[in-house]
Every structure is written in structure tokens, then in C-alpha cells.
Amino acid sequence: MSSEATAREVVALLQAAVDSRDVDRLTALFDDDAVLIGTAAYNHGPEAVRAYLAAVVGQPGSLRWDLAEVHVVLETADVLGFAAVGQVVFTEDGVDDAAPFRLAVTARRTPAGWRLLSFHGSLPSDW
Known about the structure:
The chain contains three helices and six strands, in the order H-H-E-E-H-E-E-E-E. It has helices at residues 3-20, 23-27, 46-57, and strands at residues 30-37, 42-44, 62-75, 79-92, 95-110, 113-122. It holds the Pfam family SnoaL_3. InterPro entries: NTF2-like_dom_sf (IPR032710), SnoaL-like (IPR037401).
């Protein structure tokens, strides 16, 4: 599997967890010492990350990431770092609202699967 395909696999795992609206499933993808940065908040540690993710899954409608470009910047036997650009699409009542989006992730492969060490996803400041 190519590095880009592996990065997209990590995003697909995250997307599936978001789609499930199961905060436990989503939280389980993050390392206990993870940093999660969104457009409006910096979250570090299990309680802060879980609270942010609970807000994400509690939103009306759904969201998905359409990433046009993915660039792997770090790859070892068990760590993958990548950046991506594309759009995030919010869908509510069958209506899509897309916004430009950028993403940076560091993930570690564990016996239980990929765990995110850091996730930074945000909208450009001029949006």
C-alpha cells in the first residue's frame, strides 16, 4: 500500500467513527495524550479530546472530508504523519454546505490499529 493510501485509510477510519456518531468509538481512535486542534479550540488529553468529539457527534446533520491532496511528511514502521487539503462538507436536511479545509495528522500504528497522536483540522481564517 502506498503512503498516501495508508494516510487515506487513517482518514477513512476517522470518517467511519464520525459517521457512527459513537463518541466511544471516535475517542478510541485517539491516543491518551493526543492533541486535537480545530478551527476554534485546542484540546489536549483524554477529557478535552472526548468533550470536543462529543460536540462533533452531537451536531445535527453530518460531515465528511473530501481531500483533494494528501502529502505524507513522515513514515516509519509505526508512525505516519501527513497533511491534506480539500473541503469539509456539512450536510443537514439533505443540503450540502462545503468549506475549504486543511488537515495535519500524526498517527501511530498499534496492535489495536491506528491511534491519532495529533489532529489539526481547520477552515482557512478568511472563510
